[in-house]
Amino acid sequence: MDEMQTMERTEILIDGVAAHLAQEQDLDELLDRISEAANGPARFIDFIVVGNRRMRVLVTPRSRVVISTSTVQYDPRDTGDERTPWGGLFDFEFAQDSAGRAPGE
Known about the structure:
By secondary structure, the protein is α+β, with helices and mostly antiparallel strands. It is built from 2 helices and 5 strands, in the order ββαβββα. It has a 3-stranded antiparallel β-sheet with strand order 2-1-5, with no helix packed on it. A two-stranded antiparallel sheet has the order 3-4. 10% of the residues are buried.
């Protein structure tokens, strides 16, 4: 029996809004940018989330940020390459035929 492949998934909560970072995100660099924004005038920071989509968040000195990591099953789609998004509406759009019907309709 093959052993299940796993990877680390990092969840970031900013003012109560959760996002899961895509693989290949430099967590230390992101934490530095969040710290800088939280200790100065408000500014936007950006990062890539699961689904290979860019997220931009306004961080202020009043923002509350919580980071956690967990081990999850490996997902080969989670590359961090925003040129190849997947999940949510992206999967729905690409699963439709030229008449706008989803498979099986």
